Amino acid sequence: MPDFETFDVLDIPPSLWAHFILLKTVGPRRRFFYELVGDAIESHNGFPANKRYLRDLPLKNKTLMAREFVRTVQYGRPVFSTSGYIGQAQYVRRIFRVIAPYRLGEGRYAFVGLAFFTPIAGMESQLADATIPVPTALAELPIG
């Protein structure tokens, strides 16, 4: 697992910044803390998440999100996941996530993620303003 010092947000194409998440474990209990959450994610969630703890957010899938972060540490590599959308936006059908772990120090981690949404059939125009298609987004990832 790479050290967080090796991560540079400028390596992420600007077109993906709205879909970006930076989360860290903080404190002796290693609580999940959102340092940065992109505009597209906050728009679909319907509330601000920047500078907030995961447990304090009105998310319906907090347990799922915590499990995804823990899985990346257990595997020592990025994890891709997809699930049905359970947020407030009525036009979103699925969410796709790529989460990569980074080491901050002994037992402490940072997580860099990208999240993308697919619309319910017939509601593509409502989603078009807040997100980019998943295949386009994945093609822009700086891999290799």
Task: Note the main attributes of this structure.
single chain; 144 residues; alpha+beta; Beta-Lactamase; six-stranded antiparallel β-sheet; 4 helices; 6 strands; 33% strand
Strand fraction: 25-35%
Helix-strand pattern: EEHEHEEEHH
Number of helices: 4
- Which assembly state applies to the chains in this document? single chain
End-to-end separation: 15 Å
CATH class: Alpha Beta
CATH fold topology:
Beta-Lactamase
Shape annotation: globular
Strand runs, count: 6
Descriptive account of the structure:
With 144 residues, the chain is of the alpha+beta class. The protein has a single domain (4-139), classed as Beta-Lactamase, CATH 3.30.450.20. The chain is built from four helices and six strands; from the N terminus they run ββαβαβββαα. It has a six-stranded antiparallel β-sheet with strand order 3-2-1-6-5-4. The two termini are 15 Å apart. Residues 129-135 have low confidence and may be disordered.
Short description:
With 144 residues, the chain is of the alpha+beta class.
Q: Helices, strands, pairings?
A:
Blueprint: E1 20-26, E2 31-37, H1 39-45, E3 52-53, H2 62-75, E4 79-84, E5 92-105, E6 108-119, H3 124-128, H4 134-139
Antiparallel strand pairs: 1-2, 1-6, 2-3, 4-5, 5-6
